[in-house]
């Protein structure tokens, strides 16, 4: 007899139904064709891990701090760091580390629709014009695809927002 495998989505559905207590464990077990002790175990695991939902900002902040530490080790300490106001960047652990390094912390306005409009548009173009059409095999291939695309983007592609000029031509004229 082969063991059945259940997806996290299925387990969550069963556990949430069990937490509502509208049906007995025996009824739920019959409905989903699983043993009542399995439902009890999933419910226990779910409740034991529930507080992690509210700690995710802290865990993300730890990862952001470690990533920043690595970047500082490789490239040196920046004068200023710009972030959005996500919970990982406003968490004390991250903010205190940044300020403790003598880095000025700049945060974009929370919830502004235009916070990242330029960069989001740029990366949308990168994905649809290059990456999705040429999926990279590995990190080096991705790097080379991006280098090729940005050379094209700046030297060949005409941009509606600058009267269909190429960025390099505009740059040469104003520089």
User: What letter string, H or E per element, gives the SSE order?
Assistant: HHHHEHHEHHH
Domains, number: 3
Shape assignment: elongated
Q: Major sheet: size, sense and barrel closure?
A: 2 strands, parallel
Low-confidence stretches: none
Q: Give the C-alpha Rg.
A: 25 Å
What do the pLDDT scores average to?
86
Beta-strand content bin: under 5%
Q: Strand order across the biggest sheet?
A: 1-2
Gap between N and C termini: 74 Å
Helices, by number, come to 9
Secondary structure layout plus pairing:
Blueprint: H1 8-20, H2 25-32, H3 36-49, H4 52-75, E1 80-83, H5 87-90, H6 92-100, E2 104-107, H7 117-131, H8 139-155, H9 167-174
Parallel strand pairs: 1-2
């Amino acid at each position: 007899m082969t063991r059945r495998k259940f997806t996290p989505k299925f387990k969550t559905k069963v556990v949430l139904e069990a937490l509502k207590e509208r049906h007995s464990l025996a009824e739920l077990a019959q409905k989903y064709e699983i043993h009542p002790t399995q439902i009890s175990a999933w419910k226990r695991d779910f409740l034991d891990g529930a507080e992690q939902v509210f700690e995710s900002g802290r865990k993300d902040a730890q990862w952001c701090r470690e990533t920043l530490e690595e970047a500082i080790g490789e490239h040196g300490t920046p004068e200023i760091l710009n972030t959005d106001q996500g919970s990982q960047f406003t968490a004390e652990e991250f903010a205190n580390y940044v300020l403790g390094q003598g880095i000025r912390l700049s945060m974009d306005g929370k919830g502004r629709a235009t916070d990242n409009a330029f960069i989001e548009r740029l990366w949308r173009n990168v994905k649809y014009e290059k990456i999705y059409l040429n999926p990279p095999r590995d990190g080096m291939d991705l790097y080379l695809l991006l280098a090729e695309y940005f050379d094209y983007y700046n030297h060949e592609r005409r941009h509606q927002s600058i009267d269909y000029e190429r960025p390099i031509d505009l740059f040469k004229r104003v520089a």
